[in-house]
Amino acid sequence: TTEMHWVVGCGAVGMDELTADGFSVYPNPTQGNLFVELGTKVLGDVRLRVMDMSGRVVLDDPFTVHGGGRRTVDMRGLQAGQYMVQLTTGNWVKTQRVQVLR
Question: Least CB-packed of 7, 37, 55, 91 within 10 Å?
């Protein structure tokens, strides 16, 4: 017989892991404020855009980061549905999907 082994990694279900050079969004789905948690290695000018699923920019928020932190995005003015939250830095562009509930 062949012996079998499994390696199981544990993580938080339903949450994206925050890396030092990335970002995480919560709560998802949201009914109001969305929190964008930035990794500690995120520095400098950042552009946060929220786009609907057709690619139209519905929110645009440029800001400067000094090593991580949290940004609050008011999603209350948006219709219920799926949106993409895109962060752009001098080093990368990353996007995460967010659902707005009413």
Answer: 7
Cβ–Cβ under 8 Å, residues 99 and 30:
yes
Say how far apart CA 36 and CA 22 lie, in whole Å.
Answer: 10
pTM reported for the whole predicted model: 0.80
- Residues near 58 by beta carbon (within 8 Å), at least 6 away in sequence: 50, 51, 52, 78, 83
Tokens at 11, concatenated: 């993580």
Q: Which two tokens stand for residue 5?
A: 């082994």
| Tens-place pLDDT, residues 12-23 | 444 456 788 899
First vs last C-alpha separation in the chain: 56
Q: How far apart are CA 94 and CA 42, in angstroms?
A: 12
